[in-house]
Amino acid sequence: MLHKALVKHVFHPLALARNGELAQLRYLAEFERTQWLSADELRALRWRRLQALLRHAYARCPFYRRRFEAAGVHPDEFRDFGDLRVLPPLEKRDIQRHGAEMVADGWPGHDRIVNQTGGSTGTPIRFLLSRDRKCSRAAATWRHNRWAGWDVGDRSAVLWGAPLDRPADTLRSRLRGWLLAEPLWLDTGCLTEAALRRFVEELRRRRPRVVLAYARAAVLFARFLRDQGLDVPAPKAVVTSAEVLDDADRAVIEQAFGAPVFNRYGCREVSVVASECPAHAGLHVMGEGLLVEIETARGPAGPGEVGSLLVTDLLNHAMPLVRYRIGDLGAWAAGPCPCGRSLPRLERIGGRVTDFLVGSDEQLVSGVFLATYVVAQRPSLGQVQIRQDEPGAVVYRIVPGPGFDLVEDVEYLRATTRRHLGSAMRVAVEAVESLPTEASGKFLFSRSSVTPAFLNPPSQKEVPS
Ligand SMILES: [Zn+2]
Q: Number of helices (H) and strands (E), helices first, in the chain?
């Protein structure tokens, strides 16, 4: 249709040109082609990129130079991907402590785009990417969107909590939204029954082609539709991300929306990591830009074996991330994918679980939202976990970070919590020496055993013990 064609071929490229980001279109064309390379060709491409990255990191990043020297190797001596294992994994605390020495010497100031994670791990980090990497990341996202039948210019709806990324509602922003086919938003930073009902109305009116959602938000919305006996026009696909999706969740979402789920896994640090192709047989890694390793206690994981995910960003030379431990668990799928793409494939992602917290007016606020917009804004808080075991109250358990101030930081938590969860919320803060991890080994940012009355009592599975 005309609007879609105008957005895709005119307004979107114009917006990119204005931001100096036309490289996005070049990368998209490249990734559309390289996804069909043979396994050998893809391997050669990735090996060239890995070698270039390691030589660059050795030459220009003091932190990595030290790592190579400590391991007694030079990047020129690397012969295979497995040689990377002589370098230790890069931990989040390494970036907190030595991030400045990971930035490439002499990298131009105007080409350092600051990004910041909150993340479900509760350890905020800051990192930089080049404008070129910003473009290749966006292109990667579009390629993976296309696997779900979602192209530039398609109408979409988003169940996501990112008010800071959202433009203010002005005439100009509405016009821009129309010109660029910006999505319909349901802000999962604050969900109320009224907001869910409004969203149903908007979906009926706008009939989006694709719904993008936090997995937990999609499940919650699907349960709301089911329990209230409501329906919405079926999109072509529901793309879920940012949280673990199990088979039961998938079934609930597919039933309520009448559309297939395309699961995706990504993080702020490297954007889209892997996503489902139309074969729905695991998640293909964004292999041209990322090298993913899965480490177990006994070394690299074999197919089906769960281990810790390490990722090397092959395309960000501004601040290289080499063997970065994301903090999530995963396993490789075995054999080739029926779709014919040779991009490596994850069988599943585990241990990325966050719950919704229930505010004083029964609004639901996701743990990811609080991690990103409350805790990550304040590094002195250190590691944080939020627990909610009764309505109207939350408990922050914290391992204080450097510069923690008992009065100011606690007051900050109290004020921001009440802003998001309601002014009547009781907020308690407990300092602890360490935070417990789940059986999966993953640290959990938030956990709530409270369910709002407007949703049916959850099934046994969803009640944390
Ligand atoms: Zn496939």
A: 13, 20
Q: Which helix (H) or strand (E) holds 62?
A: helix 62-71
Q: Say how many Å lie between the CA of residue 242 and the centre of ligand 1.
A: 20
End-to-end C-alpha distance for the chain, whole angstroms: 51
Determine the pLDDT at residue 347.
87
Dihedral sign, Cα of residue 450, residue 452, residue 457, residue 459 = negative
Domains (range + CATH), the chain:
2-128 (3.40.50.12780), 132-282+333-346 (3.40.50.12780), 356-462 (3.30.300.30)
Report the alpha-carbon distance of residue 32 to residue 98 in Å, rounded: 36
Residue 283 Cα, ligand 1 centroid: separation in angstroms?
Answer: 8
- 35 C-alpha to ligand 1 centroid (Å): 10
CA of 262 to the centre of ligand 1 (A): 12
Integer angstrom CA distances of residue 44 from 32, 49, 80, 386: 17, 9, 11, 45
Closest to 293 in 3D by CA, of 339, 317, 251, 324:
324
Contact 367, 445 (CB under 8 A): yes
Residue pLDDT, tens place only, 313-359: 999 999 999 999 887 778 899 999 999 999 999 987 754 444 578 88
pTM value > 0.70: yes
How many residues belong to the chain?
Answer: 465
The secondary element (H helix, E strand) that includes residue 427 is strand 426-431
Using DSSP's 3-state secondary structure scheme, residue 88 falls into: coil
Determine the 3-state secondary structure of 303 from DSSP: strand
- Residues with a beta carbon under 5 angstroms from ion ligand 1: 277, 279, 337, 339, 341
